[in-house]
From TrEMBL:
It comes from Streptomyces durbertensis. This is SRPBCC family protein. It comes from the Bacteria. SUPFAM superfamilies: Bet v1-like (SSF55961).
Length: 176
């Protein structure tokens, strides 16, 4: 079983402006891309660059390659059985336009052959669309077609956060 998962958004902004979004990843309140309000925080043990280790619970990775303002690749370190990578790239799309392109490629092993399609993929897809909404808002000031979580994603998030006190999640669930 091979997984190839792509998300992208055409943005009315030049490549440098879109690329600058990648450079803000894991910069806390200054992060313009990561949807930190509704998802576990993205954290690294040092500034972005090859060898930085981090992730967002329960997914971990190491920065395998980074070209500031253009491209970053993360190799999975967890969960067990996630053998592959994901990356963000800025692609040219004509004058004053650029594509923010995300690719995930992996060969799930063991239990990941079940957990990827049943839980991780729907959550991953929702998170990525939220991140692309943030990119669009950061570059244009608005989002033409905001992403919406499916009932299944809302259920998965409710199960994952049960027992944790996360008022932001409760607020986010009620708005979707």
């Amino acid at each position: 079983m091979a997984v190839y998962n792509v998300h992208e958004r055409l943005l009315v902004a030049d490549e440098d402006e879109v690329g600058a979004l990648i450079d803000t990843l894991a910069a806390g309140e200054n992060d313009l891309l990561w949807p930190r309000r509704d998802w576990p925080p993205l954290e690294f043990d040092r500034p972005l660059g090859p060898g930085a280790v981090g992730g967002h619970q329960p997914v971990g990775y190491t920065v395998a390659g980074y070209v500031p303002g253009r491209w970053i690749r993360f190799e999975f370190t967890r969960p067990r059985g996630f053998d592959g990578f994901h990356e963000l790239a800025v692609l040219p799309a004509g004058p004053g336009r650029a594509r923010l392109h995300h690719t995930l490629t992996m060969s799930p092993k063991g239990l990941a052959r079940l957990t990827w399609p049943l839980a991780f993929r729907p959550l991953h897809d929702a998170l990525l669309e939220d991140a692309l909404d943030r990119a669009e808002r950061a570059t244009t000031g608005t989002v033409a077609h905001p992403a919406r979580w499916s009932p299944y994603v809302r259920l998965l998030r409710a199960v994952a956060t049960r027992g944790r006190r996360r008022p932001r999640v409760a607020t986010a669930l009620s708005r979707r």
